[in-house]
From TrEMBL:
Entry cofactors: Zn(2+)
Pfam families linked to this entry: Creatininase
GO BP: riboflavin biosynthetic process
Keyword annotations from UniProtKB, A to Z: Hydrolase, Metal-binding, Zinc
Full protein name: Creatininase
Example GO molecular function: hydrolase activity, acting on carbon-nitrogen (but not peptide) bonds, in linear amides
Organism domain of life: Archaea
Gene3D superfamilies per record: Creatininase
Protein species of origin: Pyrobaculum ferrireducens
Length: 243
């Protein structure tokens, strides 16, 4: 069920145990993937999982924070402070509307700090339980180990394969020289870094991508997200007690 397609009387009656919010960013993803890749993939996974479970699907949040990639045309980056306030207020409104569990399907690394801070603060001030799923890290780990030949990255083998599987019509032919891998020994920040890192908006080896690899990853990711949603519907948190 899509939150934004319901009337208010329908929303009043609908099961609000679990809602799912896809979030991402608009930023450069090499010369071959769409600017909205991170959000599109979060939407795809969230849509498939909510279709299977009957959970509420919230309208996606397309904008996020990016650092190095804002030098490329088409990238839109909002500040961490704005992003934190936006997340916190959305979470607060979700709680006010009677949702018990909110699953945030995040598709972008630059959102992580603001998401975590906003989730902590909103949850502390309400009865809402928020689960942040950084899907490219948390889901389909076994499938990634099984099918990927090169390290995961940005617009790399993993992301290119995933978009090929979900939105093949949006993928352009991968240029022969698209592969690029840069390593830093430490966390380094500065304008000089942005001139060296991501010269093509790529970190990895998109030349190794295939639709079949993406299908394997997405199949497992959707299955795991659906399992999480069903567990939450039964009141089971993704927490394991040991010892």
């Amino acid at each position: 069920m899509k939150w934004h397609e319901l009337t208010w009387p329908e929303f009043e009656r609908v099961d609000k145990t679990v809602a799912v919010l896809p979030v991402g960013v608009v930023e450069a993803h090499g010369p071959h993937l769409p600017l909205g890749t991170d959000t599109l993939m979060a939407i795809y996974i969230a849509e498939k999982a909510t279709e299977q479970t009957g959970a509420l699907l919230m309208p996606p949040l397309w904008y996020g924070y990016t650092y190095v990639l804002d030098k490329f045309p088409g990238t839109i980056s909002i500040s961490q402070e704005t992003l934190y306030r936006l997340f916190r207020e959305i979470f607060t409104e979700v709680a006010r509307n009677g949702v018990r569990y909110l699953v945030v399907v995040n598709g972008h690394g630059g959102n992580v700090d603001a998401l975590r801070a906003a989730a902590r603060d909103a949850a502390k001030a309400s009865d809402l339980t928020i689960v942040v799923v950084n899907w490219w890290i948390d889901l389909a780990k076994e499938a990634r180990r099984r099918v990927l030949e090169t390290p995961e990255g940005h617009a790399a083998e993993d992301e290119t394969s995933e978009v090929l599987a979900a939105y093949p019509h949006l993928v352009k032919e991968v240029p022969r020289d698209a592969d690029e891998w840069v390593e830093m020994r430490y966390a380094v920040y500065g304008k000089e870094v942005s001139r060296v890192v991501y010269t093509k908006a790529v970190q990895g080896y998109p030349s190794k991508a295939s639709r079949a690899k993406g299908e394997a990853i997405l199949r497992e990711a959707v299955e795991e997200l659906a399992m999480l949603i069903n567990d939450l519907k039964r009141g089971r948190l993704p927490i394991e007690k040991r010892g």
